[in-house]
Amino acid sequence: MASYTSNYGRGYRSTNQSFGYASWDYHTLKNLRKISPAVQNHLKRVYLSLSSAFVAAAVGVYLHLVWNIGGLLTGLAFMGCLIWLLSIPTYSYNENKRIMLLMAAALLNGASLGPLIDIVINIDPSVLATAFLGTGLAFVCFSGAAILARRREFIFLGGLLGSGVSILLWLQFASAIFGGSNSIHMFETYFGLLLFLGYIIFDTQMIIERADNGDYDYVKHSLELFTDFAAVFVRLLIIMTRNAASRSEKEKRKRRD
Protein backbone atom coordinates (compact mmCIF):
# COMPACT_ATOMS: atom_id res chain seq x y z
CA MET A 1 0.00 0.00 0.00
CA ALA A 2 2.92 2.34 0.61
CA SER A 3 3.77 2.26 -3.09
CA TYR A 4 0.73 4.44 -3.79
CA THR A 5 2.46 7.37 -2.07
CA SER A 6 5.44 7.42 -4.42
CA ASN A 7 3.92 9.39 -7.32
CA TYR A 8 0.98 11.38 -6.02
CA GLY A 9 2.01 15.00 -5.68
CA ARG A 10 5.77 14.63 -6.04
CA GLY A 11 5.64 13.92 -9.77
CA TYR A 12 3.66 17.08 -10.38
CA ARG A 13 6.08 19.09 -8.23
CA SER A 14 9.03 17.90 -10.31
CA THR A 15 7.14 18.64 -13.54
CA ASN A 16 5.92 22.02 -12.40
CA GLN A 17 9.32 23.15 -11.13
CA SER A 18 10.71 22.69 -14.64
CA PHE A 19 8.33 25.40 -15.86
CA GLY A 20 9.30 27.75 -13.00
CA TYR A 21 7.50 29.81 -10.39
CA ALA A 22 6.89 33.54 -10.47
CA SER A 23 9.89 35.45 -9.15
CA TRP A 24 9.77 37.43 -5.89
CA ASP A 25 12.22 39.07 -3.52
CA TYR A 26 12.40 40.23 0.09
CA HIS A 27 10.66 43.54 -0.55
CA THR A 28 7.54 41.78 -1.80
CA LEU A 29 7.24 40.04 1.56
CA LYS A 30 6.39 43.37 3.18
CA ASN A 31 3.46 44.01 0.87
CA LEU A 32 0.34 43.51 3.02
CA ARG A 33 -2.29 44.91 0.66
CA LYS A 34 -5.74 43.37 0.74
CA ILE A 35 -6.91 41.04 -1.99
CA SER A 36 -8.27 43.08 -4.90
CA PRO A 37 -11.67 42.36 -6.52
CA ALA A 38 -9.90 41.05 -9.64
CA VAL A 39 -7.94 38.54 -7.56
CA GLN A 40 -11.10 37.55 -5.68
CA ASN A 41 -12.82 36.86 -9.01
CA HIS A 42 -9.81 34.82 -10.09
CA LEU A 43 -10.01 32.74 -6.91
CA LYS A 44 -13.67 32.02 -7.63
CA ARG A 45 -12.73 30.66 -11.06
CA VAL A 46 -9.91 28.60 -9.53
CA TYR A 47 -12.16 26.96 -6.94
CA LEU A 48 -14.95 26.41 -9.47
CA SER A 49 -12.51 24.61 -11.76
CA LEU A 50 -11.18 22.70 -8.77
CA SER A 51 -14.70 21.52 -7.89
CA SER A 52 -15.20 20.33 -11.47
CA ALA A 53 -11.90 18.46 -11.27
CA PHE A 54 -13.12 16.69 -8.11
CA VAL A 55 -16.20 15.52 -9.99
CA ALA A 56 -14.05 14.26 -12.87
CA ALA A 57 -11.81 12.40 -10.41
CA ALA A 58 -14.87 10.77 -8.82
CA VAL A 59 -15.95 9.62 -12.29
CA GLY A 60 -12.49 8.15 -12.80
CA VAL A 61 -12.74 6.20 -9.54
CA TYR A 62 -16.17 4.91 -10.56
CA LEU A 63 -14.89 3.82 -13.97
CA HIS A 64 -12.14 1.80 -12.31
CA LEU A 65 -14.55 0.14 -9.88
CA VAL A 66 -16.78 -0.84 -12.82
CA TRP A 67 -14.20 -1.70 -15.52
CA ASN A 68 -10.92 -2.02 -13.58
CA ILE A 69 -9.07 0.49 -15.78
CA GLY A 70 -6.81 2.07 -13.14
CA GLY A 71 -3.14 1.22 -12.92
CA LEU A 72 0.24 2.04 -14.41
CA LEU A 73 -1.14 3.15 -17.77
CA THR A 74 -3.57 5.66 -16.27
CA GLY A 75 -0.78 6.95 -14.02
CA LEU A 76 1.49 7.53 -17.01
CA ALA A 77 -1.37 9.09 -18.97
CA PHE A 78 -2.01 11.40 -15.99
CA MET A 79 1.61 12.60 -16.04
CA GLY A 80 1.37 13.03 -19.81
CA CYS A 81 -1.69 15.24 -19.42
CA LEU A 82 0.16 17.33 -16.84
CA ILE A 83 3.13 17.90 -19.14
CA TRP A 84 0.86 18.64 -22.11
CA LEU A 85 -1.26 21.08 -20.10
CA LEU A 86 1.73 22.95 -18.68
CA SER A 87 3.33 23.23 -22.12
CA ILE A 88 0.32 24.92 -23.80
CA PRO A 89 0.52 28.73 -23.96
CA THR A 90 -2.13 30.51 -21.90
CA TYR A 91 -3.85 32.24 -24.80
CA SER A 92 -7.62 32.65 -24.83
CA TYR A 93 -8.07 30.39 -27.85
CA ASN A 94 -6.37 27.58 -25.90
CA GLU A 95 -8.63 27.93 -22.85
CA ASN A 96 -11.14 25.21 -23.75
CA LYS A 97 -8.35 22.81 -24.67
CA ARG A 98 -6.58 23.41 -21.37
CA ILE A 99 -9.80 22.95 -19.41
CA MET A 100 -10.42 19.63 -21.15
CA LEU A 101 -6.89 18.53 -20.34
CA LEU A 102 -7.46 19.49 -16.70
CA MET A 103 -10.61 17.37 -16.57
CA ALA A 104 -8.86 14.49 -18.35
CA ALA A 105 -5.96 14.67 -15.88
CA ALA A 106 -8.39 14.64 -12.95
CA LEU A 107 -10.29 11.67 -14.39
CA LEU A 108 -7.06 9.72 -14.97
CA ASN A 109 -5.89 10.59 -11.47
CA GLY A 110 -9.15 9.25 -10.07
CA ALA A 111 -8.79 6.06 -12.11
CA SER A 112 -5.23 5.66 -10.82
CA LEU A 113 -6.55 5.98 -7.28
CA GLY A 114 -9.12 3.28 -8.04
CA PRO A 115 -7.00 0.26 -7.00
CA LEU A 116 -6.21 1.84 -3.63
CA ILE A 117 -9.84 2.79 -3.05
CA ASP A 118 -10.91 -0.73 -4.01
CA ILE A 119 -8.62 -2.13 -1.31
CA VAL A 120 -9.97 0.34 1.25
CA ILE A 121 -13.58 -0.58 0.44
CA ASN A 122 -12.79 -4.24 1.05
CA ILE A 123 -11.19 -3.46 4.42
CA ASP A 124 -13.54 -0.80 5.78
CA PRO A 125 -15.76 1.34 3.50
CA SER A 126 -16.31 3.94 6.23
CA VAL A 127 -12.61 4.86 6.06
CA LEU A 128 -13.08 6.21 2.53
CA ALA A 129 -15.75 8.73 3.53
CA THR A 130 -13.87 9.72 6.70
CA ALA A 131 -10.62 10.27 4.80
CA PHE A 132 -12.35 12.37 2.13
CA LEU A 133 -14.16 14.50 4.69
CA GLY A 134 -10.96 14.88 6.71
CA THR A 135 -9.01 15.94 3.62
CA GLY A 136 -11.75 18.37 2.63
CA LEU A 137 -11.82 19.92 6.09
CA ALA A 138 -8.03 20.24 6.17
CA PHE A 139 -8.02 21.76 2.67
CA VAL A 140 -10.66 24.34 3.56
CA CYS A 141 -8.90 25.27 6.79
CA PHE A 142 -5.39 25.56 5.34
CA SER A 143 -6.44 27.25 2.12
CA GLY A 144 -8.73 29.62 4.03
CA ALA A 145 -5.94 30.44 6.46
CA ALA A 146 -3.68 31.33 3.53
CA ILE A 147 -6.34 33.61 2.02
CA LEU A 148 -7.11 35.37 5.30
CA ALA A 149 -3.49 35.65 6.43
CA ARG A 150 -1.30 38.65 5.75
CA ARG A 151 -0.06 38.90 2.19
CA ARG A 152 2.96 36.71 1.45
CA GLU A 153 3.17 35.55 5.04
CA PHE A 154 3.72 31.90 4.09
CA ILE A 155 5.74 32.26 0.89
CA PHE A 156 8.92 31.52 2.82
CA LEU A 157 7.66 27.93 3.09
CA GLY A 158 8.53 27.37 -0.57
CA GLY A 159 12.18 26.58 0.08
CA LEU A 160 11.41 24.29 3.01
CA LEU A 161 8.73 22.42 1.10
CA GLY A 162 10.97 22.01 -1.93
CA SER A 163 13.65 20.52 0.31
CA GLY A 164 11.04 18.19 1.78
CA VAL A 165 10.08 16.93 -1.69
CA SER A 166 13.76 16.27 -2.40
CA ILE A 167 14.03 14.26 0.82
CA LEU A 168 11.04 12.13 -0.18
CA LEU A 169 12.48 11.53 -3.65
CA TRP A 170 15.84 10.45 -2.22
CA LEU A 171 14.13 8.16 0.28
CA GLN A 172 12.14 6.56 -2.54
CA PHE A 173 15.31 6.17 -4.58
CA ALA A 174 17.16 4.59 -1.67
CA SER A 175 14.24 2.25 -0.94
CA ALA A 176 14.19 1.11 -4.56
CA ILE A 177 17.90 0.21 -4.41
CA PHE A 178 18.38 -1.07 -0.87
CA GLY A 179 14.83 -2.08 -0.02
CA GLY A 180 12.48 -0.16 2.23
CA SER A 181 11.37 -1.09 5.72
CA ASN A 182 7.93 -0.52 7.18
CA SER A 183 9.26 2.31 9.36
CA ILE A 184 10.61 4.14 6.31
CA HIS A 185 7.30 3.75 4.50
CA MET A 186 5.49 5.10 7.55
CA PHE A 187 7.86 8.07 7.73
CA GLU A 188 7.31 8.82 4.03
CA THR A 189 3.55 8.72 4.52
CA TYR A 190 3.38 10.96 7.58
CA PHE A 191 6.10 13.33 6.38
CA GLY A 192 4.45 13.56 2.97
CA LEU A 193 1.12 14.35 4.61
CA LEU A 194 2.63 17.27 6.53
CA LEU A 195 4.52 18.39 3.44
CA PHE A 196 1.50 18.63 1.18
CA LEU A 197 -0.60 20.28 3.86
CA GLY A 198 2.08 22.96 3.79
CA TYR A 199 1.84 23.09 0.00
CA ILE A 200 -1.87 23.91 0.28
CA ILE A 201 -0.98 27.06 2.22
CA PHE A 202 1.98 27.94 0.02
CA ASP A 203 0.22 27.36 -3.32
CA THR A 204 -2.83 29.35 -2.22
CA GLN A 205 -0.72 32.38 -1.37
CA MET A 206 1.34 31.99 -4.55
CA ILE A 207 -1.88 31.92 -6.58
CA ILE A 208 -2.93 35.20 -4.96
CA GLU A 209 0.43 36.84 -5.65
CA ARG A 210 0.60 35.66 -9.23
CA ALA A 211 -2.92 36.90 -9.89
CA ASP A 212 -2.00 40.23 -8.31
CA ASN A 213 0.89 40.42 -10.80
CA GLY A 214 -1.39 39.70 -13.75
CA ASP A 215 -1.19 35.89 -13.95
CA TYR A 216 -4.82 34.75 -14.21
CA ASP A 217 -4.11 31.20 -15.35
CA TYR A 218 -6.90 29.65 -13.29
CA VAL A 219 -6.52 26.27 -15.02
CA LYS A 220 -2.93 25.81 -13.89
CA HIS A 221 -3.69 27.19 -10.44
CA SER A 222 -6.62 24.82 -9.91
CA LEU A 223 -4.38 21.95 -11.07
CA GLU A 224 -1.85 22.84 -8.38
CA LEU A 225 -4.49 22.75 -5.66
CA PHE A 226 -5.99 19.55 -7.07
CA THR A 227 -2.66 17.71 -6.87
CA ASP A 228 -2.19 19.00 -3.32
CA PHE A 229 -5.62 17.68 -2.36
CA ALA A 230 -4.98 14.31 -4.01
CA ALA A 231 -1.59 13.95 -2.31
CA VAL A 232 -3.09 14.67 1.12
CA PHE A 233 -6.07 12.39 0.48
CA VAL A 234 -3.91 9.42 -0.56
CA ARG A 235 -1.68 9.66 2.49
CA LEU A 236 -4.53 10.21 4.91
CA LEU A 237 -6.40 7.28 3.36
CA ILE A 238 -3.37 5.00 3.76
CA ILE A 239 -2.85 6.03 7.39
CA MET A 240 -6.50 5.48 8.30
CA THR A 241 -6.66 2.16 6.43
CA ARG A 242 -3.60 0.88 8.26
CA ASN A 243 -5.14 1.86 11.56
CA ALA A 244 -8.43 0.18 10.65
CA ALA A 245 -6.65 -3.00 9.55
CA SER A 246 -4.63 -3.01 12.78
CA ARG A 247 -7.76 -2.63 14.90
CA SER A 248 -9.47 -5.41 12.97
CA GLU A 249 -6.50 -7.72 13.50
CA LYS A 250 -6.45 -6.99 17.24
CA GLU A 251 -10.17 -7.74 17.51
CA LYS A 252 -9.67 -11.07 15.72
CA ARG A 253 -6.89 -12.01 18.13
CA LYS A 254 -9.06 -11.17 21.12
CA ARG A 255 -11.85 -13.36 19.78
CA ARG A 256 -9.42 -16.25 19.30
CA ASP A 257 -8.09 -15.84 22.83
UniProtKB/TrEMBL annotation:
**Membrane topology, as annotated:** Multi-pass membrane protein
Q: Which GO terms describe its cellular component?
A: membrane
Give the UniProt keywords, A-Z. Answer: Membrane, Transmembrane, Transmembrane helix
Tagged with keyword Membrane: yes
Localization (cell): Membrane
Q: Which InterPro entries match?
A: Bax_inhibitor_1-related
Residue stretches spanning the membrane: 46-63, 69-87, 99-121, 127-148, 155-178, 184-202
Superkingdom is Eukaryota
Family, according to the entry, reads as follows:
Belongs to the BI1 family.
Protein's name according to its UniProt entry: Bax inhibitor 1
Q: What is the lineage of its organism?
A: Eukaryota, Viridiplantae, Streptophyta, Embryophyta, Tracheophyta
